[in-house]
Backbone:
C-alpha cells in the first residue's frame, strides 16, 4: 500500500477532540498524533483516533465510499486498498478496538435500530461518529446499510462477494471465537475501558443481524447466519442504484475497483490482509493487551483490599 498526503491535517486533528481519555494511557498503544501537527506523509492505517470522544467531533472530510459487504469478506483488504488509493481513513472494526469509546455510540445506534431503544441515528450523528473517515468497511457499519446510504447518498457503494459457505466457515473460526472465548467474557467485567465496551457491542451486532449465537445450536446458527448474509446483500442491492454500486470479488484485483472509483491502477498487487490464520494469531495478542489494561485499571482496588486486609490482620 502506498503512502498518501493527508489533507487539512490541523483541521482533522482539531476535529478529533481535546485530550485523550486517561484510560488509554495504561494500555500502552502508540498514539499517532501530536498537538496541532502530524507528519506530512503517514499510512492512513496509523491515523487512529485513540481515546477520542467522537460525540464532540464533526465531519472534516467527505464520505466517498461505503463497503457494505459483511465482515470476513476481505474488509481488512478493502480498508488497506481504499486507504492506499487515498480514500482514508477507512473505518473498520479494528478502529473500535483501537478506540473503544466509539463503541458506546455504535451500541447506542444498534439499540435504537434493532431494539427500539433510544433515538435512531441521523446524518448529524453519523458525521460525529465517522466524520474523520472517507470510507467504511466491516461491521459495525455493515449493520447500517440503509442508514449510511441515506446519510451519504452520493457515496459509491462496493459490495464484496464471497461464497456464503466459505464465509460462514471463516466466521466460525474467527469472529465467533471472540464471542465464545471465556477469557473475553471475564475481561468484559475486568477491562472496563475496552472489553466491557467491545464485547457487548460485538454480541449485539451478531444477535441483531443473525439472531443466533449459541454453540449448542450449531445447525440452527449456521442456517441463521447464512440467511442473514443473504438478506444483507439483497438489502444493499435493493436500495443502492446500479450506477453507484460495484459487485466485486477480491480475486478480480485492482482493475474493476479502480475503474469504478475513477483512480489509477497501482503498480503493486492488491494487498491481502487478515486472513483466518492472521486473525486467529492476533487473538492472544488482543487478550494480552486487555489483561494488562484490566490489571492496571484494577490495581488500585486490589491494593486497597490488600491494605484493608493487612490492617485487619495486624490489629487483631
Residues:
Amino acid at each position: 500500500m502506498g503512502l498518501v498526503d493527508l489533507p487539512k491535517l490541523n483541521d482533522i486533528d482539531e476535529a478529533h477532540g481535546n485530550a485523550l481519555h486517561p484510560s488509554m494511557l495504561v494500555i500502552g498503544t502508540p498514539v499517532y498524533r501530536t498537538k496541532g501537527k502530524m507528519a506530512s506523509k503517514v499510512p492512513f492505517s496509523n491515523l487512529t483516533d485513540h481515546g477520542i470522544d467522537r460525540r464532540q467531533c464533526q465531519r472534516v472530510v467527505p464520505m466517498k465510499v461505503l463497503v457494505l459487504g459483511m465482515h470476513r469478506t476481505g474488509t481488512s483488504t478493502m480498508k488497506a486498498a481504499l486507504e492506499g488509493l487515498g480514500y482514508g481513513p477507512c473505518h473498520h472494526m479494528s478502529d473500535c478496538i483501537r478506540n473503544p469509546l466509539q463503541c458506546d455510540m455504535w451500541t447506542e445506534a444498534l439499540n435504537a435500530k434493532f431494539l427500539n431503544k433510544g433515538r435512531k441515528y441521523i446524518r448529524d450523528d453519523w458525521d460525529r461518529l465517522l466524520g474523520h473517515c472517507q470510507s467504511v468497511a466491516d461491521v459495525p457499519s455493515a449493520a447500517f446499510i440503509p442508514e449510511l446510504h441515506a446519510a451519504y447518498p452520493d457515496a459509491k457503494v462496493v459490495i464484496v462477494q464471497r461464497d456464503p459457505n466459505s464465509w460462514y466457515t471463516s466466521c466460525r473460526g474467527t469472529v465467533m471465537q471472540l464471542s465464545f472465548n471465556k477469557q473475553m467474557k471475564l475481561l468484559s467485567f475486568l477491562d472496563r475501558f475496552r472489553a466491557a465496551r467491545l464485547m457487548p457491542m460485538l454480541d449485539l451486532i451478531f444477535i441483531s443481524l443473525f439472531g443466533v449465537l449459541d454453540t449448542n445450536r450449531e445447525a440452527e446458527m449456521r442456517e441463521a447466519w447464512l440467511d442473514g448474509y443473504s438478506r444483507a446483500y439483497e438489502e444493499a442491492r435493493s436500495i443502492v442504484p446500479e450506477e453507484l454500486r460495484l459487485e466485486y470479488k477480491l480475486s478480480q484485483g485492482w482493475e474493476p475497483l479502480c475503474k469504478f472509483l475513477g483512480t489509477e491502477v497501482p503498480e503493486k498487487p492488491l494487498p491481502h490482509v487478515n486472513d483466518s490464520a492472521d486473525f486467529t494469531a492476533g487473538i492472544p495478542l488482543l487478550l494480552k493487551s486487555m489483561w494488562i489494561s484490566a490489571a492496571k485499571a484494577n490495581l488500585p482496588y486490589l491494593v486497597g483490599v490488600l491494605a484493608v486486609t493487612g490492617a485487619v490482620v495486624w490489629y487483631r
About this structure: Confidence is low (pLDDT under 50) at residues 1-48. Residues 24 and 281 are 24 Å apart (CA to CA). The first strand starts at residue 4 and ends at 5.
